Model the fold of this input.
Amino acid sequence: MNFVKNVKVMAGQASPEDALSAADYPASGSYVDVSGYQYVNIVVHLGAVHASDTPIFEVKEADAADGTADSIDTTNCKKTCLGTDDDQVIVFFINVDALSEDHHWLTVTVSGVTNGSYGEILYFLCGPKKAPVTQDSTLLPSDNQFQKA
Done:
């Protein structure tokens, strides 16, 4: 399977070298539309976590790109980290059919970060209803896509 033709890659934040703040990733107005996909994998790769922080990552759903971010499931869609969780990876799997009716926009709400903690949030939209998927040319330009088949 050719990854870039079957999985759309979306960034939660523009610059992973910037410290996380208490916010939605991506921000309201830019929530990720998952309506054209069967499921989504959200990968949070922590960088340095400040010892005084307890980062919390919660996947939320909305009914529009700028809608109200609503909790989905605080057991399976929320992770509280420790200040010693540097460099760990967190993975959320979301079945799009399990979202509330008309709620096909996702964001990750981050809290508990006030002292300079880092992480990258990536969305992998899988099972496209229409293939091949179209990648964002700024995030994943064609000259960054390689294939040896």
The first strand starts at residue 7 and ends at 11. The chain has one domain: 3-144. The radius of gyration is 15 Å.
